Amino acid sequence: MAKNPARLEEAAWPIFEAGHIPMIGEWVALPVLSSAGATGPTDPLAAEVMYPTAERLLQHCDAVLRLPGESRGADQDVEIARRRGIPVYHSLDEVPGAGGAVA
């Protein structure tokens, strides 16, 4: 899990520079989880915080950037976004105003 946020954060600056506000669910969910007394993302309480946080955040997002790689959570985010009619981009190059690849 530690590698995914670091990889996602590589896209944060180009997205911000393009005029958008980047958001990664873990930026919100992990402090909530910690304040609930959980020991980390493997704590049983995580199921009640991690994915629900992402679902709530998606109520306020204009788009989703789904980078390559296996991630059940990211796949769920894409599914939620599509149900809500939120655009899903699969490359930083697709994000309006942004450019460059994130591996």
Could you give the distance between the termini? Answer: 16 Å
Strand order of the largest sheet: 1-2
Task: Indicate the low-confidence ranges by residue numbers.
Answer: none
Average pLDDT figure: 89
Q: How many domains?
A: 1
Please provide the count of β strands: 2
Structural class: mainly alpha
Note the run of SSEs as H and E. HHHHEHE
| Helix content bin | 40-55%
Structural Rg: 14 Å
Q: How many DSSP helices?
A: 5
Please characterize this protein's 3D structure.
The protein has 103 residues and is mainly α. The protein has one domain. The chain is built from five helices and two strands. It has helices at 3-9, 12-17, 25-35, 50-57, 72-84; strands spanning 64-65, 88-89. Strands 1-2 form a two-stranded parallel ribbon. The chain is globular, with a radius of gyration of 14 Å. 16% of the residues are buried. The model has no long low-confidence stretch (mean pLDDT 89).
Give a quick precis of the structure.
This protein has helices at 3-9, 12-17, 25-35, 50-57, 72-84, and strands at residues 64-65, 88-89. The chain is mainly alpha-helical. Strands 1-2 form a two-stranded parallel sheet.
Which labels suit this protein?
globular; single chain; mainly alpha; 103 residues
Present the secondary structure layout.
Elements: H1 3-9, H2 12-17, H3 25-35, H4 50-57, E1 64-65, H5 72-84, E2 88-89
Parallel strand pairs: 1-2
